[in-house]
TrEMBL record:
Residue span(s) of domain 3-hydroxyisobutyrate dehydrogenase-like NAD-binding: 168-286
Protein name: Tartronate semialdehyde reductase
UniProt-annotated catalytic positions: 174
Organism per entry: Streptomyces chattanoogensis
UniProt feature coiled coil, ranges: none
Record flagged with keyword Transmembrane: no
Gene Ontology biological-process entries: glyoxylate metabolic process
One of the Pfam families matching this protein, by short name: NAD_binding_2
Keyword Oxidoreductase: yes
Domain 6-phosphogluconate dehydrogenase NADP-binding stretches: 6-165
Source organism superkingdom: Bacteria
Gene Ontology molecular function: 2-hydroxy-3-oxopropionate reductase activity; NAD binding; NADP binding
PANTHER family from the UniProt entry: 3-HYDROXYISOBUTYRATE DEHYDROGENASE-LIKE 1, MITOCHONDRIAL-RELATED
Length: 298
């Protein structure tokens, strides 16, 4: 029998499913729960155990990991008689990997502490590809000893794993990450339309740009999306819209100006309002195309 801690995983979406599967590959026993039956079947097919409820998933777990879309979903799975805090055993470690407001993470840590449950906020960056390849960047908020206990698990999921400070710090760093990513994607999208309208070979241009100072992880990961107009969601516009709301609100609270970030937040919101919310955030290209009178495919 394995001496590894027993894992419960709540939320098996685009990111959660491959992450849970990577823990199974690393030898952990994973019991999962999510709302979609096909995702539970996928977990079971890949060696995990499907639970019929949150309570069933967490009751015997040493470590509980959650990956859901936003603060309301975190609160829904954490609180109440059927939630994590009422059904997990004392001493369990709850690692929330969702991208939510820093205050939601702070409140969750306090509520968990009252139940004898340790809590870390550990949002990630790297998208679906990073989740599949287990090379995510994981930014953590919480106490050092809890981080040390979580580290072997997090190392099965990511490559860059950093304790950023007390509870909520991981979410603050994630908000900054999403600001940088959105501005970067927007800049790349504008460059793509500029290049195409100028008659330059786009593939050649993106290759050479990627090798210079303009190169970035965003350009490397998203250049095929731009070239092929392939906006199958790895990270949806809807979710980036949520994240831009988090960073703009948090920046207002601390008195930090986001002049460029505010413009990009509005462009993300505009794209969502035009019906593109379910597309990958590389679909910011569609917004630039509309503004430029450039043909939009699909």
């Amino acid at each position: 029998m394995s001496n590894l801690p027993k894992i419960a995983w709540i939320g098996l979406g685009i990111m959660g499913s491959p992450m849970a599967e990577n823990l199974i590959k690393a030898g952990y026993a994973v019991t999962g729960y999510t709302l979609e039956q096909d995702k539970l079947e996928r977990l079971a097919k890949n060696g995990g155990t499907a639970a019929a409820s949150i309570a069933e998933a967490v009751q015997d777990a040493d470590v509980i990991l959650t990956m859901v879309p936003a603060s309301p979903q975190v609160e829904a799975i954490a609180y109440g008689p059927d939630g994590i805090l009422e059904n997990a055993r004392r001493g369990a470690l709850l690692i929330d990997m969702s991208s939510i407001t820093p205050q939601t993470s702070i409140d969750l840590a306090q509520a968990g502490g009252e139940k004898g449950i340790r809590v870390l906020d550990a949002p990630v960056s790297g998208g679906e590809a990073g989740a599949i390849e287990a090379v995510l960047s994981i930014m953590v908020g919480g106490q050092q000893d809890d981080f040390d206990a979580a580290r072997p698990i997090l190392e099965a999921l990511g490559k860059t794993i950093v304790l950023c400070g007390p509870h909520g710090s991981g979410q603050t760093v994630k908000a900054a990450n999403q600001l940088i990513v959105a501005v970067n994607i927007q800049a790349c999208a504008e460059a793509v339309v500029f290049l195409e309208k100028s008659g330059v070979d786009l593939a050649a241009a993106l290759d050479v740009l990627g090798g210079g100072l303009a190169g970035s992880t965003v350009l490397t990961r998203k250049k095929d999306n731009f070239k092929n107009r392939d906006f199958k969601p790895g990270f949806r516009i809807d979710l980036h819209h949520k994240d831009m709301g988090i960073v703009t609100d948090a920046a207002r609270t601390v008195g930090a100006a986001l002049p460029v970030g505010s413009v990009v937040a509005n462009l993300v919101a505009s794209l969502r309002a035009q019906g593109d919310g379910s597309l990958d955030h590389s679909a910011l290209l569609r917004g630039v195309e509309r503004l430029s009178g450039h043909s939009i495919e699909g």
